[in-house]
Specification:
The chain is mainly β. Helix content is 3%, strand content 58%. The protein starts with a strand and ends in a 12-residue tail after the last strand.
């Protein structure tokens, strides 16, 4: 039996291909992960849909100002915890979380009114981690 690494309810995450390193909220109640994005614009590259977006986030927990581009994996409707449904673009993101590097689906969503620019959902956690909500930064202890 493989031992799964423990995460706290707040962890540091790196989006390797987007050059973003920030704090994220771990949410086992959310199915998918999301990254704050503004000014999302779809364009064609080599016959495929791509998105260009601005990760502009400024709070006491995170400051990010980065223009990003990524291929569109798919699009879907996502229902938030307050019951509102929104259309979101989904990208495949290479991330490093608690020393583990892997690729996971991430939706692009406006999270400007949230405390953290990233939400880590069940799909990214499943089979890799367990969550202890009484801890923060259990995955790396760097905080």
């Amino acid at each position: 039996m493989t031992t799964k690494q423990t995460l706290g309810f707040i962890e540091r995450i790196a989006f390797d291909d987007l050059d973003i390193d920030c704090k994220a909220k771990v949410d086992t109640g959310a199915c998918s992960s999301s990254l704050h994005a503004e000014r999302i614009e779809v364009f064609q590259r080599d016959g495929n849909d791509w998105v260009r977006f601005h990760v502009l986030f400024d709070s006491n927990k995170a400051r990010i100002d980065r223009l990003c581009e990524a291929p569109v994996l798919t699009q879907r409707h996502v229902t938030s915890s307050n019951g509102q449904t929104s259309h979101r673009y989904v990208i495949a993101a290479s991330i490093t979380l608690a020393g583990q590097q892997f690729t996971t689906e991430v939706t692009l969503s406006h999270r400007g009114n949230m405390t953290y620019p990233v939400l880590i959902g069940r799909k990214a956690l499943s089979g890799r981690f367990i969550v202890d909500v009484s801890q923060s930064f259990a995955g790396d202890k760097k905080g």
